Amino acid sequence: MVPAHEIEALVGYQFPGGEYTIEHWENFLLTECTGGELLPDAMVHPVALFHVPILGCNTSIAEMFALGQAESDFSIGIESYDWELFAPLFEDTRYQISGRVTEADRHQYEQGPTYDRIAFEFTVTEPSGKDAARCTITWHYRRGLKT
Amino acid sequence: MKEQQTPNRSVKVGDQIPQWVMPNVLPERMRTMAAILRDPNPVHWDPGSVEALGFGNHTINQGPLGLAYMINMLHLWQGPRSIRRIIMTFPQVVLDGDCATARGEVTGLRQEDGEQLADCRIWLEVKGRGIALEGSAVIALAG
User: Fold this and answer.
1) What counts of helices (H) and strands (E) characterise chain B?
2) Does the global pTM surpass 0.90?
């Protein structure tokens, strides 16, 4: 099992950061996946607040799994998503993204298995410099699973 | 200074938010979503990997998609600019073929920065299996 101190050392880790522009085709397909209707005025469906921060920050789900030394794709469990929306997102707008690890520590479920709890915080900023959203993803990296 | 909105007097604590139903969670949508998200986890597109986990010959819906069903409910209730915050937990997986119903209720009302806000408990029920997602939302009420 990965030593706990290696997980705890992740706190403060900064992703490279970058930018992301949501094009119409992407918003169309995303919205279709939700079963909802396209929003008016080229507004982006808020479900984009999962992948836009990750990809815009120049990382990926796979890299986030690897950062916490996930034992497999199946070992990841979601604790929570916390999305704060300060302004709607719009198509064809170049958003700046930053992201970092804010929490990383070892725990044990009541049933016994060990997991590492890692929280990632991303900020989505409009071209004007005003924050549009802050998204916190908290995952459990379960250790010692047989699968 | 922000314009003061007219308080929305039609929403009360204890009100139920009109439900939103996804009658059949489709695996095709999970595959599209996996591509957009660049999500390599095979549980979203390979039923064999899910069967090995004990969930049968299914694929597992992405967490954000279940959350999106509740966003759709909230948008239809108070408009596409109304959501201020969502916090979501995921006690159970949602599988292809599930019928999922987004539900919610108002737990509190308050004023903040000139907006009337509703604190809501929101959840996603899967037919036959109970609550799959559960959390809270802060919604700016239409004037």
Assistant:
1) 3, 5
2) yes
